[in-house]
Write a structure and sequence with these properties.
CATH superfamily of the largest domain: Metallo-dependent phosphatases
Number of strands: 20
Number of helices: 10
Number of domains: 2
CATH topology of the largest domain: Purple Acid Phosphatase, chain A, domain 2
Low-confidence stretches: 1-7, 40-55
Strand content: 15-25%
Strand order of the largest sheet: 1-7-8-9-10-12-11-13-20
Structural class: alpha/beta
Helix content: 10-25%
Shape: globular
CATH architecture of the largest domain: 4-Layer Sandwich
Largest sheet: 9 strands, mixed
Distance between the termini: 59 Å
Mean pLDDT: 90
Length: about 425
């Protein structure tokens, strides 16, 4: 059978409604989607119906699920034996006369849907210098899913003209991270004008920097999947591996450097909507290096919402201004309601509850992305939705002598009452 080009058949957002974080369910969804794609290019003959039976659901699902749950994870890649230490100077990619260096961010984007294509196209139209995906390739980050979202000829992931990077989420780890490390990372990294290609992302963590700011992107995905059955008793903490902590201290020297810090991870430090979905261990590990009082901007995904927090710190964690941008491609369901006591405790400032559409009688919110604009000591962050509407604009300044960052401006551009703002 000649298979149709992978980028011509899209998934439907309705296939993602009520999707849990169960590995078993996500593997089932992956195998189910394979059958749907094959049916599109098959003729309706008896032989193919028999083939459908043997390919669909149970047999393939059981095989891949057992293989993923009881096989070894892909080896964790580091910078220890390379000259490349994963620290890169931000560079302007064009001579357009603008001084700003731009980084486009999307998280939970890789759904291979019409909606994720729209977000990809909007990002491409912004012509950013860098693009970063904060993790989760659905359903389980298998080879075909990595290909369809990031590698196929007409896929909609836009590679920034100076570089493109990808963090590791829990969904890629549902297939043990194999295709993420083996297939995706070699296609990413900084762009070499001399070699006219992307030089490869060597590890699942890295740092982009200028004279005033550092974007420190870290891996919470590798330790997001535990030992089968035992993980239901002892939930994974999504903590940083010791190699990352060593890199932060010895190479990045994050405890000594006084530039402003933007942390990026897949998993959230805090939430106002999911009682069991806070991951404080990474914040505690960072506090052991830089202390509890030095504030950072922390951008994450995992929770499928747009949410902004004021300064917050857990009992032993760092002080952070959290920004959740997990609305890249997954349908934004509002099934998790606001936890009232966390509005104050977590210093919740803004969340988006605007209704974009209905799927299966479920109200769905707006997908979106954000753009970071760096110019000298100023960082401007713009939050856009799937209609390319600018929702929020905030401006920060960094003092590279003291390590202090200051939020000098925040403008709520959208006047829609679905944008909930707590000044």
């Amino acid at each position: 059978m000649d298979e149709i080009k992978s980028d011509l058949i899209k998934r439907d957002q309705k296939d993602y409604i009520d999707l849990s974080r169960s590995e078993a369910e996500n593997h089932y969804k992956t195998e189910e989607s394979k059958v749907v794609k094959k049916k599109v290019v098959r003729k309706n003959v008896a032989l193919n119906k028999v083939a459908d039976f043997f390919e669909t659901n149970i047999f393939s699902w059981v095989y891949h699920y057992i293989k993923s749950r009881f096989g070894l994870k892909h080896k964790f890649q580091t910078y220890e034996l390379t000259d490349d230490k994963g620290i890169y100077k931000m560079e302007k990619s064009s001579q357009d006369g603008k001084e700003e260096i731009t980084i486009a961010l999307a998280s939970d984007w890789a759904t291979d849907t019409v909606e994720s294509d729209l977000i990809g196209d909007l990002i491409a139209n912004k012509d950013p210098d860098y693009t970063i995906h904060l993790g989760d390739t659905y359903f389980v980050g298998m080879k075909d899913e990595i290909r369809d979202n990031f590698l196929a000829k007409n896929c909609s992931w836009h590679r920034g003209s100076s570089g493109s990077f990808a963090l590791l989420g829990n969904h890629e780890m549902y297939s043990r991270g194999i295709s993420y490390f083996r297939d995706l990372l070699p296609s990413m990294g900084v762009y070499s004008k001399e070699k006219k290609k992307y030089t490869g992302q060597k590890a699942s963590y890295f740092c982009l920097e200028n004279d005033h700011w550092r974007v420190v992107s870290l891996d919470t995905g590798y330790n997001s999947v535990g030992i089968p059955l035992i993980e239901y008793l002892f939930k994974p903490k999504c903590d940083f591996r010791k190699e990352i902590l060593t890199w932060l201290k010895d190479d990045v020297k994050i405890d000594q450097d006084k530039r402003g810090i933007v942390i990026m991870t897949h998993h959230q430090y805090c939430t106002a909507f999911e009682k069991e979905e806070e991951y404080v261990k990474p914040a505690e590990q960072l506090a052991e290096i830089i202390g509890k009082d030095r504030p950072v901007i922390w951008i994450w995904g995992h929770e499928h919402r747009l949410t902004l927090f004021g300064r917050y710190s857990s009992e032993k964690g760092i002080a952070a201004y959290g920004r959740c941008i997990g609305n890249g491609g997954m349908p934004i369901e509002f099934k998790n309601k606001l936890i009232p006591e966390r509005v104050k405790d977590r210093n919740l400032k803004l969340y988006d509850e605007r209704v974009y559409s209905k799927i299966k009688n479920v109200e769905i919110g707006f997908n979106g992305f954000c753009i970071l604009n760096f110019m000298n000591d100023q960082l401007k962050i713009e939050y856009f939705d799937i209609k390319n509407e600018l929702l929020v604009l905030e401006v920060w300044k960094a003092d590279n002598q003291s390590g202090v960052i200051t939020n000098t401006e925040i403008n709520i551009i959208s006047k829609d009452p679905g944008m909930k703002y707590n000044p």
